[in-house]
């Protein structure tokens, strides 16, 4: 399929044409802030070659046949199937095909399938090792008809002498720069070195597993900027290698980077180093295969520069008297760069340029196949003034290696986001977009989009039958194009689906996938998003490697970004607009982390993001992926961590989404007793299917790797663990042992946590799990491996107690103390989350008192609640709006009522919370010992009549002790004894009734010192005799003068 461009080029001069287009392209890039990658809308499609043309004596000469012989013609049946978008093997009939041979010649036919083409000419690419006839004048192709109807198919036949050159097989050929020329230009070449033998020696070393000469620094991904590294041998590397240094027998230093999966190709950035020798050696870059899509014919996009991309034009004005032949001469080549003309690895070729005559059609093989490199010159219907130079989408070989497909099918492909989906890349010297999609039971799949009128006939895909993957490389197609996949199911229904791996989408309610401009895996370093959070990421790495992350303060501000703050007219603020406001607000409150409700693409905002369609794309309503990276980057620069909600349990059932993706249950279980949550109206992922496991696991790693996310909160874990979750008897299927546990979901969660903690040290995982499932935070085969579990029971019990009228609270005192019975079983997050302030439940302020309770009593109770939450073991989490004691319950369609925060009393609640969180961060006993039961001790837990509880938080030294006293009664207490383990003076760290926080100043104020006396409470050697305000919380610790002065400083 060819693309029709809109960029016009004056015919008068090539130089003026190039300059004109460069200017236009640069202007476009400036206005959109997107690299000028070629698209059907904003740039030419042709690319120049810096290499000289090959001498005629070396070329294969393809002789044009006047007619396509009968045995070379495509059949009417094939034409019919192509026209119906139902051909099972489009690559078997389109493009370059051999159809016969005799004693002297081989016979080929080229078939072009170009939507809305009026005429098509073919010519050999000028710098390739083939030519059509001796002068390579473009030859007109013959249009085919079916039952009198003109079709999009054009064909032309050729023959070539057999003895022109023998086919060379099983030798290395790849993209290489002219290293000799580079050395001369740099003035570095002092002596000629046989690079070929050097390459072969290194390859032999790897083949023989002599890895002692290849010690590498390995990173999990090119964007893994926190610098985790391990010393490994080359043969043990199973995933992405970013940069390695090698010391060889020659004491030279080389650079390894992934470039292809079959050989050793030279790279532009080849480094010439002079180490312990007077000889400079130009060394090629080495590839080690992983699940990133690399091949001998595939090279990552090396330049998005407008200047380099538009040196040639794709379109020529034909309104002049110049002969057609001359017009074709002015048409540029469509290829950016051919195969290398130097330093080939196989000396059996008759010349050092012989490799360019062959191509690896199968990237899983080293076999080289003789092939014509050609391009089309197309005139379209309705446009007689211009012609377009195009490459044939059906002239390219296989796109994914067998290794990549096997990794995907294994269920554990950590970089599946680089294999499936749409990616701009260079293939056989042409920049374009590679599409790959998994639809195992589809009969036919086509890529459809704006460039082809969403016509499924235009771009049928190749099936990799055993895997269920469909693939197609479309030359010249670039960023910003909307697309989808037209799928023809086994029941003969035809429909369009989104790309499950798309990294950008249209803004809802529209849902088309978009070729992303922010796909950093396929950009040069200078074009990638510029992260500035190295300090944060390095610290996170060290804490993770030292297993100290759980000792760090972790106070979490939960945010629904679309409703956190909006413009005055109700419009959304984008990621970049929110960044400065959110960073300042969270920093002032002294939260250490933010947690975003799901930001993966979702069609319905009323789901709050929990019904996902695009697991690999940030929510498009707020901006593109780079915009979201900017937000994370700004938070990290302010020393604020970022967690996100991740939803692997279920997905929405919109017809254009994942449900029945290929017409059959694909991502979901087939049996509705397993595959549907009727109460939620969602489908359940099929956790036993390996391809779905790769999809889900890869999505989690994608957020950590691409967006530097510091932690994942896994949603609805209970629904994953239990096969009978929210299902009545008879509507669920037991596991193979007759139990209700979903064993495949258990193994998925175990693998998720194991990989995250291995590959992303310092990343924190949390489970929203509300049952008594054992071992949620236990490591090893007996546990799920999470770092913490949400204590939903504590939240429900506490809020239930606070809502109880004062005269009945003593009957529910166990709601406050019950947690002591299970607290030691897991590691915890203590949430006051979005779930409790929505859908008619009222605001958090409403819950801080019975119906009709006075406003100020509820304000005081809310402050006491915050102190109680931060004092108890577990990481505190607070949902947006609670910091200003918002009166209305949360609604996803409107902003937080920030105007309420300007009221004096609410402003003082915010100040109190800030001071409280600063206290939490400052004193290690309040956070460092959360996960050990011996760091918590009840002081007073049985005084139900007085509605008072008190407990001690400890960590290592006695001077770290903090006593927390909470009074949830409307009565004040005078000279109330609180048992403590130490004598001397204790200092008040914070009193919620202090004047500073809008209190009545009853009891000891902040920084007051109280001397402990002997006796007073049974079981304690000393007591503090305190005046305790109503609805209050007081935190105190032993007075240590030097330590306190240091803390204050």
From TrEMBL:
<dbReference type="InterPro" id="IPR013783">
    <property type="entry name" value="Ig-like_fold"/>
</dbReference>
<keyword id="KW-0320">Glycogen biosynthesis</keyword>
<dbReference type="GO" id="GO:0004553">
    <property type="term" value="F:hydrolase activity, hydrolyzing O-glycosyl compounds"/>
</dbReference>
<dbReference type="InterPro" id="IPR006407">
    <property type="entry name" value="GlgB"/>
</dbReference>
<feature type="domain" description="Glycosyl hydrolase family 13 catalytic">
    <location>
        <begin position="558"/>
        <end position="914"/>
    </location>
</feature>
<dbReference type="Pfam" id="PF02922">
    <property type="entry name" value="CBM_48"/>
</dbReference>
<dbReference type="InterPro" id="IPR006048">
    <property type="entry name" value="A-amylase/branching_C"/>
</dbReference>
<dbReference type="InterPro" id="IPR017853">
    <property type="entry name" value="GH"/>
</dbReference>
<keyword id="KW-0321">Glycogen metabolism</keyword>
<feature type="compositionally biased region" description="Polar residues">
    <location>
        <begin position="23"/>
        <end position="35"/>
    </location>
</feature>
<dbReference type="InterPro" id="IPR044143">
    <property type="entry name" value="GlgB_N_E_set_prok"/>
</dbReference>
<dbReference type="InterPro" id="IPR004193">
    <property type="entry name" value="Glyco_hydro_13_N"/>
</dbReference>
<dbReference type="GO" id="GO:0005978">
    <property type="term" value="P:glycogen biosynthetic process"/>
</dbReference>
<keyword id="KW-0808">Transferase</keyword>
<dbReference type="InterPro" id="IPR006047">
    <property type="entry name" value="GH13_cat_dom"/>
</dbReference>
<dbReference type="Pfam" id="PF00128">
    <property type="entry name" value="Alpha-amylase"/>
</dbReference>
<keyword id="KW-0328">Glycosyltransferase</keyword>
<comment type="similarity">
    <text>Belongs to the glycosyl hydrolase 13 family. GlgB subfamily.</text>
</comment>
<dbReference type="Pfam" id="PF02806">
    <property type="entry name" value="Alpha-amylase_C"/>
</dbReference>
<dbReference type="InterPro" id="IPR014756">
    <property type="entry name" value="Ig_E-set"/>
</dbReference>
<dbReference type="InterPro" id="IPR013780">
    <property type="entry name" value="Glyco_hydro_b"/>
</dbReference>
<feature type="region of interest" description="Disordered">
    <location>
        <begin position="1"/>
        <end position="35"/>
    </location>
</feature>
<dbReference type="GO" id="GO:0005829">
    <property type="term" value="C:cytosol"/>
</dbReference>
<dbReference type="GO" id="GO:0043169">
    <property type="term" value="F:cation binding"/>
</dbReference>
<protein>
    <recommendedName>
        <fullName>1,4-alpha-glucan branching enzyme</fullName>
        <ecNumber>2.4.1.18</ecNumber>
    </recommendedName>
</protein>
<comment type="pathway">
    <text>Glycan biosynthesis; glycogen biosynthesis.</text>
</comment>
<dbReference type="GO" id="GO:0003844">
    <property type="term" value="F:1,4-alpha-glucan branching enzyme activity"/>
</dbReference>
<keyword id="KW-0119">Carbohydrate metabolism</keyword>
